[in-house]
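All the exercises in this workshop are built on plain-text protein records. A learned vocabulary of local backbone shapes supplies the integers on the structure line. Once this layout is familiar, the rest of the handout is easier to follow. An example says more than a description, so a record of this kind follows:
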Amino acid sequence: MTTRMLTTAGLAIGLAIAAAAPQAGLAQTAATSGGAAKPLIVGHRGASGYLPEHTLESYRLAIAQGADFIEPDLVATKDGVLIARHEPMLGGTTDVASRPEFASRKTTRRVDGVETSDWFAGDFTLAEIKTLRAKQAFADRDQSHNGRYQIPTFQEVVDLAKAESARLGRTIGVYPETKHPIFHAAIGLPLEDRLLDALKAAGWTEKNSPVIIQSFETANLKYLRGKTQVRLFQLVDADDVDKDGGIVLAAPFDKPYDFVVTGDKRTFKDLVTAEGLKEIATYADGVAPWKPYLLPGKQVIGADGKPQDLNKDGVIDERDRVLLPPTDVVRNAKAAGLQVHTWTFRSEPKRLASDFKGDAAAEYKAFLALGIDGLFSDFPDVAVKARDGQ
């Protein structure tokens, strides 16, 4: 998912389907209470609020904090290996810019219609990727772990999930996102079959397998639907929220990029209408919209026409928004037979609406009350405690 939001969480999984699961001997993931499945907590890029995202260390911490699923965003290397990075561009999350041996690799490519200058994973072999080290993508978060951790392959993430499942006696699910599928296909590194091959090798091919695939594009999900029974989720993006709480659409966050390529005039907003959700249900098991599609917030506009600084800190941010009534997206999605996940939950007070008074747990509880089936969090420990009433 995008850096300002991101990336979701899951379907109810039965407590006692280990015998039917492809991975023999492991109890299937079950967040249950009194027999009723709880919403899943997905460690968004691991426990990325604490450690550099998409590292084995971040995923391991998310698991230790109680996450039901861990989320690797997938891109491909020059030699066709799937690795966990938020984007095919490496500059924002690794130390590549400080590595003189790779200075000449910086180039400009068109990603979802946007000319982008950076270092691209598809120009590096896996061996070269393994010499890089991860860094914290958010400047306002702990930078002390920068330069310490490698970039993992998808196989390493799967291996970690299986090993921790066996060690803990509970199945840890993996929730991969195919990043920019059209871009990857255009450079000769399509993601889908590589992902399916990895899942087949893991024994994860059925609907009850501990894996969920997500994408902002639709065409690749439809392709995957014809190839696998594992659960698929349609991500729904946007560019921003206006002063009145309305969703703002602007390229490249206005529609799935396959719509751009095919000339489809619909937008992400159209996907979460009652009709759009019914269409999603023909190829996916669930929908994962950005949080404001479910529970928006508006600014309070003063007599001068400017947003009021509700907490008097001299900065206008999420703390200066007040919640509006929930939308009908959850209700309509459930009516269409879809599960609903949403993203991304972050604990910093400046990222919480005024109604929550700086308490991240209050935000989780407000969204859980809508009837969602899962959520993505940068801080899985906080999410788990809020869900479980701790």
Observations:
- The radius of gyration is 20 Å.
- DSSP finds twelve helices and 19 strands in the chain.
- The chain has a mean pLDDT of 92.
